[in-house]
Design brief:
This protein is of the alpha/beta class. It has helices spanning 30-37, 40-59, 78-88, 105-116, 139-157, 211-214, 252-263, 267-281, 301-309; strands at 6-13, 67-73, 94-99, 123-129, 133-135, 159-164, 166-173, 176-184, 191-195, 217-220, 226-230, 245-246, 319-322. The protein has one domain (2-287, 297-322). It is built from nine helices and 13 strands. Helix 3 links the parallel strand 2 and strand 3.
Length: 327
């Protein structure tokens, strides 16, 4: 079976303090990055997302043959480290890696992911998640199965990208959590890149918005395949993606079932926990007083969601193949 020759490996950077410049809002000093990332309110928020959003679908994958690297800082405080390790212990495919902090994320991820590659695999499908994202329960199965569709194009260059363009955004506001369908191209939780095992790069070496310049790509727009968080600590400039996104139609019945059936997420429970603890999650980080220069630019969920969602109203299932151009 062709699909069995594909190794599936993912990486999730869980509040890892990387080198300055790796992220849009990274502080200039490592001690500032640690203070921001390991702030108690932020940590509680990220543990909540890990437990209620990220892990359920990974735990319930229809194809259990995959590996997910959880990249963590070696100085993650023990009170959070212990709770995190207990949570992820329920998903044996997750490999926590505590790395030296302040390193460039691309080089660090490249070394880890290439070290996990099976040299006998025909292709390695790599994907990436942020620590507030989720993939559908059949993400691994579909990614492995799809290889049969793209095998000739992959063989020509040794690289190929698939983009699952339909998903759900989880908009977190003080009043509660709202889940909304969205169609968007090149969003990281909906992507997977096939590479030869000996390829010198990894998934983090490719800018997700420019993948079409580097390799053949195939877009799938037939079912929801990702959840992406929109909240007060987003690093990505989601507000700029409104030009490239729209909604797709879900019936009333589908709206009630898409999250538990496609992602093993209980939206009512997520909303209840968020409402009960939102003041804790939204607390101003220690050392930041009113009038101080903000260390991060907080997007307002309302403006982000409005710009990202109030676009194209009609979207139809389609598969679109594109060929790479020049950089």
């Amino acid at each position: 079976m062709v699909g069995s020759r594909v190794q599936v490996v993912g990486i999730c950077r869980w509040s890892y303090p990387s080198s300055p410049g790796d992220f849009r809002l990274t502080p200039e000093r490592l001690d500032q990055a640690r203070a921001l990332l390991y702030d108690p309110g932020r940590m509680e928020h990220r543990l909540f997302l890990l437990d209620q959003v990220v892990l359920p679908a990974l735990r319930n994958q229809t194809d259990k043959d995959f590996t997910l690297v959880l990249l963590l800082g070696e100085r993650l405080p023990s009170r959070y480290r212990n709770r995190l390790l207990e949570m992820v212990s329920t998903v044996p495919q997750i490999r926590p890696v505590f790395a030296e902090e302040g390193k460039g994320q691309k080089k660090l991820a490249r070394g880890i992911l290439r070290g996990l590659r099976d040299p006998d695999a025909e292709a390695v499908a790599e994907f990436r998640l942020d620590d507030d994202d989720a993939v559908a329960i059949d993400f691994v199965e579909e990614t492995r199965r799809t290889y049969a569709d793209i095998r000739p194009l992959f063989a020509a260059k040794g690289m190929f990208c698939i983009d699952y363009t339909r998903g759900v955004v989880m908009v977190s506001e003080p009043e509660g959590c709202d889940f909304r369908p969205i169609s968007a191209r090149w969003w990281t939780p909906g992507l997977a890149i096939y590479l030869r095992p000996d390829h010198p790069k990894s998934v983090l070496d490719f800018h997700h918005m420019k993948l079409w310049r580097r390799m053949h790509t195939l877009m799938y727009a037939d079912k929801a395949m990702f959840v992406r968080g929109i909240h007060h600590t987003n690093d990505s400039s989601i507000d700029q993606f409104g030009k490239r996104s729209g909604r797709f139609r879900l019936s009333r019945e589908e709206r009630d079932t898409v999250l538990p059936e496609r992602f093993a997420i209980d939206p009512e429970r997520v909303d209840q926990i968020w409402r009960r603890r939102s003041a804790e999650f939204l607390a101003v980080p220690a050392g930041t007083e009113a009038g101080d220069e903000p260390r991060v630019r907080a997007e307002t969920p309302e403006s982000v969601a409005d710009q990202a969602l109030e676009k194209t109203k009609n979207s139809r299932p389609a598969r679109v193949a594109t060929a790479p151009g020049s950089d």
